[in-house]
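Example for tutorial group B:
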């Protein structure tokens, strides 16, 4: 249910934000001896020990005393982090924007097939968590650390199982923090660190292969027929671009209205004020990308005049980097780089 607006790629965005488009677990191992052979939903042997953890978040703190055996994820990215750590959620969100026929993102389906075993139940795409469906999954942990849940939602979810919310603001958790928090909650902190090292190595290699990215200013936008959305400095998309060597254009901060935690809108009369070496535009398909390029409204922008607009095209590719996750970042990295290169070269 994602459109081209900056929707949170989660199962549903609270109405205080516009419908989000670009944004678009585990079996537990019982504590035991070395002979313990219990397996998790992901098919991994049970852990010998689990050190209790306390995770702080926007609504307080959550104590996890025993290793989770049945994990439900809500929002975006948490499910991918769980799967990337080789654990199978018992339930996770269903998606439509960029998803395959199963209602999952393609990188999720690939990982689920790799893990084998019983597949996760898919939760309905709704504006608030589908509490009854989540309860029916009988979780002992709910991960919503990149989501838009309210405090009221959190209280309801906490009555079902221990729940971990986002650390500060909805829809603004850095993608690395999603991975480390999930790893901590699952008793897999070491594995989470190793996963991050692998991902960072791929991103660093891409940045090294493209030194022309270094220092180029960039603004990331979603141009919907109804509005012009600009992603703020706190958004994980921007963090990813900075990892590749780009610098957030000063104009992004100068025009920021703090309309939401991760984006703001500007009027068509002001788009020429959003200056940058490169303008990154997310488009669901080539037809929409062509419409944007041919719209006279945007010809006042220096990036359109200079041919320095990079269009990331395709719902699946857009979703993989908007914002990135533990599984999607490397899945869509090559296509993302390919889209950026011509615009950067045109920028000199």
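The residue assignment follows.
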């Amino acid at each position: 249910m994602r459109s081209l607006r900056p929707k949170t790629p989660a199962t549903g965005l609270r109405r205080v934000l516009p419908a989000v488009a670009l944004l678009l677990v585990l079996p537990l191992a019982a504590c035991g001896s070395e002979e313990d052979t219990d397996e998790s939903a992901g098919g991994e042997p049970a852990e010998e020990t689990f050190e209790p953890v306390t995770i702080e978040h926007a609504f307080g703190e959550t104590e996890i005393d025993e290793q989770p055996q049945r994990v439900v994820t809500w929002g975006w990215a948490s499910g991918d982090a769980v799967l990337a750590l080789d654990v199978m959620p018992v339930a996770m969100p269903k998606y439509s924007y960029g998803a395959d026929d199963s209602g999952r993102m393609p990188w999720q389906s690939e990982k689920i097939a790799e893990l084998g075993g019983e597949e996760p139940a898919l939760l309905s795409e709704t504006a608030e968590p589908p509490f009854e469906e989540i309860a029916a999954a009988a979780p002992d942990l709910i991960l919503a650390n990149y989501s838009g849940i309210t405090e009221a939602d959190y209280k309801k979810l906490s009555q079902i199982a221990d729940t971990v919310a986002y650390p500060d603001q909805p829809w603004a958790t850095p993608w690395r923090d999603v991975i480390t928090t999930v790893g901590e909650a699952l008793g897999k902190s070491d594995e989470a660190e190793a996963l991050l090292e692998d991902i960072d190595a791929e991103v660093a290699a891409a940045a090294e292969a493209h030194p022309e990215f270094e220092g180029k200013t960039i603004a990331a936008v979603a141009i919907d027929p109804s509005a012009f959305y600009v992603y703020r400095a706190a958004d994980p998309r921007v963090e990813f671009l900075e990892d590749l060597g780009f610098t957030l254009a000063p104009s992004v901060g100068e025009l920021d209205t703090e309309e939401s935690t991760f984006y703001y809108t500007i009027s068509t009369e002001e788009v020429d004020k959003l200056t940058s070496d490169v303008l990154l535009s997310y488009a669901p398909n080539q037809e929409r990308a062509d419409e944007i390029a041919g719209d006279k409204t945007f010809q006042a922008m220096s990036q359109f005049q200079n041919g320095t607009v990079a269009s990331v095209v395709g719902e699946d590719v857009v979703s993989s980097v908007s914002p990135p996750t533990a599984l999607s970042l490397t899945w869509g990295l090559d296509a993302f780089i390919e889209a950026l290169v011509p615009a950067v070269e045109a920028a000199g």
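Residues 1-5, 7-47 have pLDDT under 50 and may be disordered. Compare this with the pattern of hydrophobic and polar residues in the output above.
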